[in-house]
């Protein structure tokens, strides 16, 4: 098992740049520090420093170890601060990663139930690519990841995908753009400019298959990883754009767009990915229950 005291000594020397400076800061003798780092290198079976003249330089392995040590002691400082300063009435911190393929309005509606719990919750949101968020989940810097797909097969992260719901997709256009074309649905997709999600979005592949099945040859003028940016271009009249049908009313209201068509043959799915096989975190349970009973349940109950 890793000796964290020895790791701290290594970290202090690496940050200080020399054993002598680190020993002064730690109030230890240089011999003690040198001996402890030697024991750490022996236990790990690798060299962490190289002596160049009177200086110490990190080896490649040492630089890797330092990056991990930075995270270890940063988390340790955060833990100490949280425990030392936590009043009894302090809110629960709920750390959520949102895959940037998930529409922001969907993320908001999924997370809202967590804010309505009896015990106060403070949500900390991070938006990033799914692969990077899963790494953060694995080292417990996130409690939950919201994504438009389950955890990819072969991912070296132990986690569980909980399906929150799914819905079809709706096509929208700015009114003046729609008025330029006389074709009806879905023929308008053959002639009007179209904005589509980027290649990393889970809905992209089934959408392209749907075009092929219905012999639609769209004139694609833009691809977007960020759905909010795609909707902004759509609102400006750049092209027809899509959004999950569950937020169709919201898109019409906020973007002044009109619905030109809808299909349930292409669906968008949304998942909560956690380290828990059985959901126990109260905020995650609230999100899961509200998504299945209200957000997506109501779509098909209407």
TrEMBL record:
Database matches in SUPFAM superfamilies: Periplasmic binding protein-like II, Winged helix' DNA-binding domain
Molecular function terms from GO: DNA binding; DNA-binding transcription factor activity
Residues of the HTH lysR-type domain: 2-59
Stored CDD domains: PBP2_NhaR (cd08429)
PROSITE patterns from the UniProt entry: HTH_LYSR (PS50931)
BP term (GO), one: regulation of DNA-templated transcription initiation
Alphabetic keyword roster: Activator, DNA-binding, Transcription, Transcription regulation
NCBIfam families from the UniProt entry: PRK11062.1
Similarity comment: Belongs to the LysR transcriptional regulatory family.
Protein's name according to its UniProt entry: Transcriptional regulator, LysR family
Source organism per UniProt: Nitrosovibrio tenuis
Phylogenetic classification of the source organism: Bacteria, Pseudomonadati, Pseudomonadota, Betaproteobacteria, Nitrosomonadales
């Amino acid at each position: 098992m890793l000796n964290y005291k020895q790791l701290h000594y290594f970290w202090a020397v690496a940050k200080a740049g020399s054993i002598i400076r680190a020993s002064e800061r730690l109030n230890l003798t240089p011999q003690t520090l040198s001996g402890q780092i030697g024991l750490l290198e022996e236990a790990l079976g690798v060299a962490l420093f190289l002596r160049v003249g009177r200086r110490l330089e990190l080896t490649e392995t040492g630089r890797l170890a330092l990056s991990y040590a930075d995270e270890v002691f940063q988390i340790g400082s955060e833990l100490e601060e949280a425990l030392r300063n936590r009043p009894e009435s302090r809110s629960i911190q709920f750390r959520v990663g949102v895959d940037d393929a998930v529409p922001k309005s969907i993320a908001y509606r999924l997370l809202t139930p967590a804010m309505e719990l009896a015990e106060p919750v403070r949500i900390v949101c991070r938006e990033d690519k799914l692969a990077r968020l899963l790494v953060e989940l694995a080292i417990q810097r996130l409690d939950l990841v919201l994504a438009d797909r389950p955890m990819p097969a072969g991912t070296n992260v132990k986690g569980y995908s909980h399906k929150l719901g799914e819905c079809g997709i709706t096509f929208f256009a700015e009114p003046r753009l729609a008025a330029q074309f006389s074709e009806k649905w879905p023929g308008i997709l053959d002639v009007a400019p179209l904005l589509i999600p980027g290649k990393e979005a889970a809905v992209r592949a089934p959408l392209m298959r749907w075009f092929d099945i219905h012999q639609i040859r769209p004139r694609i003028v833009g691809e977007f990883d960020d759905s909010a940016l795609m909707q902004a271009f759509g609102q400006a009249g750049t092209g027809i754009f899509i959004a999950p049908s569950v937020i169709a009313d919201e898109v019409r209201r906020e973007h002044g767009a009109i619905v030109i068509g809808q299909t349930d043959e292409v669906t968008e799915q949304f998942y909560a990915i956690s380290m828990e096989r059985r959901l126990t975190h109260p905020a995650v349970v609230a999100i899961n229950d509200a998504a299945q009973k209200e957000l997506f349940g109501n779509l098909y109950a209407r």
